[in-house]
Amino acid sequence: MVVPTHMVVTKSCLNHPAISEERYSSAAMALWRHSATFSIIIALLESSTAIFNEGVSSSPKQQIEFSPEVPTFAPEMAWSWPDFVFIICSIVTVPPYLVILVLLIFNKKTTRLSTPFYSQIISQGFGDILYIVTYVSLITFGYVSFKMKLSPLLMQLVVSVAVRVLIYCLALRCLGVMFISFQRYITLCHSSSIVYMWIDRASPIRIIFIHWFVATLISLPVLLVRAPKLGPDRSDALQFEDSSFKVLVAVSYASVFPTFLICTFCYTAVLREIFANRPTLSRCSKDVKREIQICIQVSAFVFAFALLFAFYLAECILLLAKVKPPPIMPLMHPLVSGFMSFVIPWTLLFFNEEITQMIKRRMETALPPTITVEPTTTVWSTRM
Question: What's the pTM value of the predicted model, to 2 decimals?
Fold first, then answer.
């Protein structure tokens, strides 16, 4: 993600006891060349009105002193509207998402819900919820830490753990949509192949294990990232080494770009297959129509993935052009990245027939049976 250069300085810069404004700017631009993934942390610690020269002396002769003492943070920390919208969407989305996942787990013996597609939905769902909960917790912690002036060691520990979890969730979510798209491609275009038979007969545990294991392999280099250091004020809130930024950039782009290209290839073939056989769809069996309906639903997942890919691609273009990103770009990352996690449960809830029927059956069994009261005949009524 895009890193606001006015908020971070590298460790190489801190080796100097004093840094002039000119050196500070060049160091910030050097950091920007190695960044593109870390607005998930930096955007939490800045307001939308922060400016580049904050904390930098207006006179080129004056110098900035970096004190080794405990940093003093700004007393005011305004909430940005993208963070607020992201938290509201998370509160609205997580409960129904959990209900869907729990019902899918307890109804796995149902024939229609025992397919590999729903096993992948379960795996993807827990990755989405882990991402949402971690991001909301980090956003809230970022604002509270500035309000309450928490311990720098505590902030450093929380941020260090959250970085690794969020990067892992990025790989997990991108791989999940890619695996779902690949499963749709094999089911609709190569239903007689050996790959289809292997996927169709795979146990849910094996499908979930492969998903999470591959994501672990991709995000494993994040363990090499060193913990960030806290700067003297909010404008320099986090300080990372150049090598750590390079690792974060590589892992993030490896999670997004290849998976989206595979996803695009699979779903282009799926849509071509659907439109090519459109005249004969009315004569297809119910099972084939059901698979086609699921493919149309998954297209919403692919669309959300495309928005995330476009966001990262824009960051990459700015990175290569050595252009500082607009201030709104890092602030919009929670909404753009979270949209892929928000769209999945609501698409299933409103457009998936198996999910809606499963929820209706559960609600009918949970509600107490209605008691019908027979009309009684009194003596007075018989006389009338």
Answer: 0.75
